[in-house]
């Protein structure tokens, strides 16, 4: 058997069928482990996941991607639908090494031309929230500053000031890079339309397989790119340090000595209030002053399970649920027997 120190041991792993875990009686807190056997089903298709759940062959759907988007509106009214704030942001990256995207006025014009409310209402399901900042709400007692909102008049003015009135003279070979997925494609088409109709800019769309997409982003072989980030831990730093000059996840070519200074100072500060104020100053540079990125919306977390059947699950911003705490509730009808 595989040596483990956790609440469960590996019983078996059947490829394309299930991974079965069994209670570890040698676990330090075994007396409080609420279940004996747990099966994890390796499902990749949302329709398969919901069918397994509805037929009683699965008790919980944890992964939001396994909830069919076309059913979200209907599912959201059911008692087994659980929605919560999630530590994830969907945003647009600008390659600031490409002219004229090296000009903050151009980046701001492109951002101000986007009607985020329309994007969220039309192409996201399940309660995604419009983002006017980068760090998700509910992150470790932190409150973000406000960034730019939809303002077509200011967008046109800034683009003209940058030398491209009505989009004249703007490069015609610029591309918006995105990876596979219906929602990503729909949003790409919508951004393309907004930039064309508001600014007179023609942008091509380039879809890439996920590994290629990440490689192209990392090598700055793009102009605009669909992007997202899921926090590793509940703290604003897991989002804001991404765009420090030497961070490998920056992937915009953007660098700011002042931004780097503020992030380093924040992480050397022990007073929570002062630390958060430093982070707010840095985030203002990121989303309002310099804009190497433009936030679109915040992800929402979704779990599907019957609260009268399953206990021990508590929605949280990291969507972390200790297996040892989850248990099957005794059905009321069975308890009366």
Automatic annotation (TrEMBL):
Gene Ontology MF terms in the entry: peptide transmembrane transporter activity
One record GO biological process: peptide transport
Higher taxonomy: unclassified sequences, metagenomes, ecological metagenomes
Name of this chain's protein: Solute-binding protein family 5 domain-containing protein
Domain Solute-binding protein family: 5-250
Pfam family, one: SBP_bac_5
